[in-house]
Design brief:
Elements: E1 5-9, H1 15-22, H2 30-34, H3 36-39, E2 49-54, E3 57-71, E4 74-86, H4 95-110, E5 114-119, H5 122-130, E6 134-144, E7 153-157, H6 166-174, E8 177-178, E9 204-209, E10 212-220, E11 230-232, H7 241-251, E12 256-261, H8 267-272, E13 278-288, E14 299-300
Parallel strand pairs: 4-5, 8-14, 11-12
Antiparallel strand pairs: 1-2, 2-3, 3-4, 5-13, 6-12, 6-13, 7-9, 9-10, 10-11
């Protein structure tokens, strides 16, 4: 047998060997990975799954998929990178770096504007910096206290008839905040992808001004995983951030954890409210291909 590492893209029949690498490390769910070409909401190109093999054993893996983001007043396609993993006994040999360079070459051939990824691991951050990624933002969390003062805005549970308003809010939000995944028809093939739908709408709240829907947010109630609950950056593009925060404070019965992003639309307002913003380990990183993108005027946003 040859001891040379072979690099290539995914081919039919590879999944068993790939899962032998990824499953023990809890990198993927088996059923989801096996149905990636049928069930995922965008078309995944087999050439965007790059593998490193040693004697027919998969020792390295990375996956990229097209992600439509609104920037420079138009939708542009970026490559989202995930499932970057090298077998523990094969690390420090440049395998991950080689796989990333191959994936970037594929992204460029497809005409993607850049590549984007997130991580909370220090070693991964060093790898991504080595291959050209820069910090875009990091996740911040704070404890938002209750303030029962009145607000003209009201947070309510989501009804099924509310769901049609969410794509329009996403569109307006995406034009002022980056990165925001917003699927525009005819830009990238979508398989019935809807972010908020009747099966998960209980995880969200909707913000109303009278009868008008002006925003929404993922809204986790307290649980074992989130002892103080977790409210993510409200998507309310046309409402003053201080008014949005006041409406949240008027709704919550006790202190809640709020997640935002460094450089985000709510960062300054939270500080004005006296909140202490603590960075988590999670960071979002960006690599551009070709001409720089001018992100002046864009708020950063946590990926969710």
């Amino acid at each position: 047998m040859s001891d040379k590492i072979i690099y290539r893209h995914w081919q039919p029949g590879d999944d068993d060997a790939i899962l032998e690498l990824l499953l023990p490390a809890e990198q993927v769910h088996e059923d989801s990975y096996r149905t990636k070409f049928e069930d995922w909401h965008v078309d995944i190109d087999a050439e965007a799954i790059r593998l490193a093999l040693l004697n027919d054993r998969v020792v390295g893996h990375v996956l990229g998929e097209p992600t439509p983001l609104c920037v420079e007043r138009k939708i542009q396609i970026f490559g989202w990178v995930s499932h970057v993993f090298v077998a523990p006994d094969m690390r420090q040999q440049g395998i991950a770096t080689h796989l990333m360079h191959e994936l970037h070459s594929h992204f460029k051939q497809k005409g993607y504007r850049g590549s984007i990824l997130d991580t909370d691991e220090a070693a991964a951050i060093r790898l991504y910096q080595k291959v050209g990624y820069q910090f875009l933002t990091r996740e911040l969390r704070t404890q938002l206290p209750r303030n029962p003062s009145s607000s003209q805005l009201k947070w309510t549970e989501v009804n099924q008839q509310d769901l049609n308003a969410f794509p329009q809010l996403d569109e307006r939000w995406a034009r002022r905040n980056f990165p925001v995944e917003w699927v525009q028809q005819n830009i990238v093939k979508v398989r019935r992808f809807i972010k908020v739908h009747r099966y998960n709408m209980s995880m969200y709240r909707v913000l109303r001004q009278g009868q008008k829907i002006v925003g929404y947010s993922m809204w986790e109630e307290p649980s074992e995983y989130y002892p103080d609950g977790l409210i993510r950056d409200p998507i309310a593009p046309d409402v003053d951030p201080m008014e949005v925060l006041a409406s949240v404070q008027a709704t919550i019965p006790t202190t809640r954890t709020l997640q935002t992003a460094e450089g985000g639309r709510y960062e300054a307002s939270l500080r004005l409210c006296g909140c202490t913003l603590e960075p988590t380990a999670w960071v979002l990183m960006l690599l551009l291909f070709g001409q720089e993108i001018d992100l002046t005027g864009y708020h950063r946003t946590a990926w969710w």
